[in-house]
Please model this.
Amino acid sequence: MHVAKNMDPEDSGVSPLWKSTAPPLATFDTLKGEQEADIAIVGAGIAGLSVATISASQGSKSACWRLRNRE
Model:
């Protein structure tokens, strides 16, 4: 059994299943001009996207920003 020295899957040499089976990531144009939203969310991880989903389900318009992929 291979045990990584740290818990980072990228360092273990093992690729997660979702990475090889997920569809390609969507690409979006760079934001230009002014945008209006009720809620501004910085970060598109699980927490940011959860806030966006919940706020949308309650009728709010949210805008979510994330860093570009580094890959």
The radius of gyration is 17 Å. The mean pLDDT is 80. The chain is about 30% helix and 10% strand. The CA atoms of residues 41 and 51 lie 8 Å apart.
